[in-house]
Design goal:
Elements lengths: L1 E7 L6 H10 L4 H8 L9 E9 L2 E9 L10 H10 L4 H22 L14 H17 L3 E4 L2 E2 L4 E4 L2 E4 L3 H10 L3 E2 L10 H10 L2 E2 L6 E9 L9 E9 L5 E11 L4 H13 L4 E8 L5 E9 L4 H11 L6 E8 L2 E9 L2 E10 L2 E7 L1 H11 L3 H15 L6
Parallel strand pairs: 1-4, 4-9, 5-8
Antiparallel strand pairs: 1-11, 2-3, 6-7, 10-11, 12-14, 12-15, 13-14, 16-17, 17-18
Length: 398
């Protein structure tokens, strides 16, 4: 079994919300306090937790209480030295360093300097360091092996920062999202919902973004944010287990229905969608309002090909809107092979399950070329090639 966690962020994510969710899920606060002392920060701070209620729901709020002093401005090297000298679990050090390096890259891109030249202000302050290292400590204490995160709300409005008033999402968060093609959406709340610390943690640590991963739920931790919002300002940390050999990936499912377009155009559009990176495209006849006959077009694509596929649909069809959802899929490992047959070389797609060949399909175009050349039924050619391919892969054909 594989230990998995899912960060469910309906109102965004911040470092203190991560800590709250981890403590609520069972990570001992005393453990975090003890381990964080290894950082040897010169500033005195106190870590505390308390129940906090949002919209009638109780969650855990973790506070990093600091004295009234101006936080020092640190460079990336200062933070790296701080973490490397600390006596912390190796995985915690690795994660923490990667988070700050991602932050440095994002800030460097915003200000047009190198990552080493970046002056960390807010994110270099003591509370941000505690949030990041503490989150890594909590995840390591839980024995997490796979981390997933929901799509993130964009927020809106403005926020005051060291460089003045900035639009939300702030530039560093935008750059972090762009670096991983993070799925985002608007929940209608014009506040800063995703902080640079929260964004950096997920961009660095999450293996995938989107819908809930398949898991057996063992524990749920609730971490409270500060602001009162129309939605409960709570980060939900789902902790569970899944089969160790179950490799899941997140894909986008795009859908639109069309009732005023020639089927020939749809066929042409399908070819363009595959060229744009779609994994699959299919259509279904449907009855729309007022009993109009229409076609439901469904496109499955990688997250980084959403924009390209939507552009094809908008440009080539009459649709006025496209729905998105994010789903997880399990795909067999596969590879293309060229096999020698009595009729010549033919490409076949070979699928594996736990290093065993369980499915083989000859390429349609190759079979058609041979069928036309040899004047042999296509079906017979396909049936002939499959056992040959299984034999060449040292498997008996059933």
């Amino acid at each position: 079994m594989t230990k998995v966690v899912y960060f469910d962020c309906p109102t965004g994510i911040a470092g203190d919300m991560c800590l709250g969710a981890l403590v609520d899920a069972g990570v001992p606060l005393d453990y975090l306090i003890s381990e964080l002392q290894q950082l040897g920060l010169p500033e005195q701070y106190q870590l505390s937790s308390q129940p906090f209620t949002h919209n009638g729901q109780v969650a855990t709020k973790v506070n990093v209480n600091l004295p009234e002093i101006t936080p020092p401005s640190r460079h990336l090297q200062d933070l790296e030295t701080l973490i490397e000298k600390a006596i912390l679990p190796s995985q915690v050090k690795t994660w923490s360093l990667e988070v700050f390096q991602q932050l440095a890259k994002a800030e460097a891109a915003v200000h047009g300097v190198s990552p080493q030249e970046v002056h960390f202000h807010e994110v270099g302050a003591t509370d941000a360091i505690i949030d990041i290292v503490g989150t890594c400590l909590g995840l390591n204490w839980l024995g997490v092996e796979t981390i997933s995160c929901s799509a993130l709300p964009s927020g809106g409005g403005t926020v005051k920062a060291t460089h003045g008033e900035l639009p939300v999402p702030v530039p560093a968060v935008v750059n972090l999202w762009q670096s991983r093609n993070i799925p985002i959406y608007s929940n209608g709340i014009n506040k800063e919902l995703v902080t640079p610390t929260g964004a950096a943690l997920m961009v660095t640590l999450a293996n995938s973004f989107g819908a809930f991963p398949r898991m057996t739920v063992k524990q749920v931790g609730l971490g409270a944010g500060n602001a009162s919002l129309p939605l409960p300002n709570i980060l939900r940390l789902w902790i569970g287990e899944t089969e160790a050999n179950e490799d899941l990936e997140t894909v986008a499912v795009l859908e639109t229905q069309i009732d005023d377009l020639s089927p020939q155009v749809l066929a042409y559009c399908q070819e363009l969608l595959f060229s744009a990176g779609a994994l699959d495209v299919f259509t279904q006849p449907i009855n729309m309002k007022k009993s109009r006959l229409g076609t439901l077009v469904t496109v499955i694509c990688p997250l980084d090909q959403i924009s390209a596929c939507e552009t094809v649909l908008f440009r080539e069809t009459t649709t006025l809107g496209i729905r998105r959802q994010f789903q997880q899929r399990r795909a067999l490992q596969r590879e293309m092979q060229n096999i020698q047959t009595p009729l010549g070389v033919i490409r076949v797609k070979v699928a594996f399950l736990e290093d065993k060949v369980i499915n083989i399909q000859p390429e349609y175009e190759d079979c058609v070329t041979i069928a036309q050349r040899e004047e042999i039924p296509l079906r017979e050619i396909q049936e002939m090639i499959i056992p040959i391919a299984f034999s060449l892969n040292n498997k008996s054909y059933q």
